TrEMBL record:
This is RteC domain-containing protein. It holds the Pfam family RteC. InterPro entries: Tet_reg_excision_RteC. It comes from Belliella filtrata. It comes from the Bacteria.
Length: 274
């Protein structure tokens, strides 16, 4: 299951990248991206319904770390679509007010759910069987759910909320960039932008750590991540958690490194005229 979910997520990111390069404006981008992620969620749902989970541990991992990534993307595009559709023709001053109001709403959301937020992102596990198992003891209402049905075999209390945490963080970044643009502030970011899956970059930084190529091996993974993320304009987020997912891969735990080797070999062969 881990490999299927990872491959599906990577294929989804590739679709989103293609859409971002061809979409005609923000509304079109959000609409097409939402549809692409929704299709991937349906595929994920079909896979889960067909194969199930081998034990409670694998079910918890799925609803705590896997499904929320897809939900986060889905909710993000739905929220940006809603925001941009609500004030498409407003003058800059009113648009800035609209963006600030949305940021206040998100801040209020985090305040309401701060205990769950800190539970999840601090790495605690003592409530996992209540939050990340189907029919768990803790239940939330989902009046704003974005996919077509809340199938009890494909949903649980914590997964959707974690998806919101992931999504709203991205929405805040989007709103801040939009505000800066309206106020004439220029980004000081330069250089290449990482457009591959985030998990690939995380796999790379852990490989560099393991190889001991920085400071004769005397450097923490946090130091490498803090430099690498901004360098390639990529928020690495919970890279510790992502590394645990990489370790759990069944067939191949070095997908990106193997891809790099193949790509470089083919590049050199092409340069040699082979």
């Amino acid at each position: 299951m881990e490999l299927y979910c990872e491959n599906l997520y990577n294929r989804t990111n590739e679709k989103l990248l293609d859409i971002s390069m061809t979409a005609e404006g923000k509304i079109d981008l959000c609409r097409k991206s939402f549809t692409a992620v929704q299709e991937s969620l349906y595929k994920l749902k079909e896979y889960v319904n067909e194969h199930g989970f081998k034990d409670k541990s694998s079910e918890i991992i799925f609803f705590k770390s896997v499904q929320p990534k897809f939900l986060g993307e889905l909710i993000y595009f739905a929220e940006v679509f809603r925001i941009e559709s609500s004030c498409p023709l407003k003058p800059p001053k009113q648009k800035k007010g609209c963006y600030r109001k949305e940021m206040e709403k998100i801040s209020a959301f985090y305040e309401r759910h701060q205990e769950l937020y800190w539970y999840h992102f601090s790495g605690k596990t003592d409530l996992d069987d209540k939050l990340f198992l189907r029919n768990g003891e803790i239940d939330f209402s989902f009046p704003d759910i974005y996919f077509l049905d809340a199938d009890p075999e494909f949903s649980c209390a914590g997964s959707y909320r974690v998806g919101q945490f992931i999504a709203f963080k991205k929405v805040l970044e989007y709103l801040q960039i939009s505000l800066d643009t309206l106020e004439g502030k220029k980004s000081n970011k330069t250089g290449p932008v990482w457009t591959g899956p985030k998990v690939w970059l995380i796999e790379l930084i852990y490989a560099l750590k393991a190889a001991g190529v920085f400071n004769k091996g005397k450097v923490d993974i946090k130091d490498i991540a803090n430099i690498t993320g901004p360098m390639f304009q990529k928020d690495l987020g919970e890279y510790y958690r992502a590394f645990q997912e990489i370790r759990l891969r069944k067939k191949n735990r070095t997908v990106f490194l193997d891809h790099l080797k193949t790509a470089l070999t083919e590049y050199m062969d092409a340069a040699d005229g082979m």
